[in-house]
Write a structure and sequence with these properties.
The chain contains 8 helices and 2 strands. The protein is mostly helical. It is about 80% helix and about 5% strand. A two-stranded antiparallel sheet has the order 1-2.
Amino acid sequence: MKTCYLQVTLLRKRTGFAYTIALTGLASVFVFLATYFLKIPWGINSYFHLGDAFIFVIAILLGPWVGAVAGSVGSALADMVGGYAIWAPFTFIIKGIEGYIVGRLANPNGKQRNLIAMLAGSIWFILAYVLVAYLLFGYGYAVVELVGNIFQAIGAVILALFAYRNLHRGIPILRTVRETYTRRD
């Protein structure tokens, strides 16, 4: 696999460090808003939300590091503000790794590669949350978490594919930003 350089350094060369920070902060806010405001509570201590779709799209368009930071910060903040603080530390790690996986495996010009990247990110977050649910609440809750997260992942992948297709075509600057974020030798 080709080496992925630190995207912040590469983006600084073309657009500036302040732009990198602003873009990452904006992406984190989008994930927070999609997770906090667009949610449906289910189970004992969980909810369906659109945040994963936003993490997928952000990671594909802007690269693994922005996907990781936006996923971590936006999702964990939504958990803390939304009354699910017990999940926040786990969410910070799980969603960060999810964003990195998707951004690292994705190819902004390849629909099939993006689908594989989103499926890999989905498998990661499903298994990670099931493990955390088992450790915190036991076997029964882990099974409920598994079923709910499978539906969450399916919805996120479908929505992200649709959103990415339209954003990728409609906003050419995003292609340029992604190229500056990821350089492969």
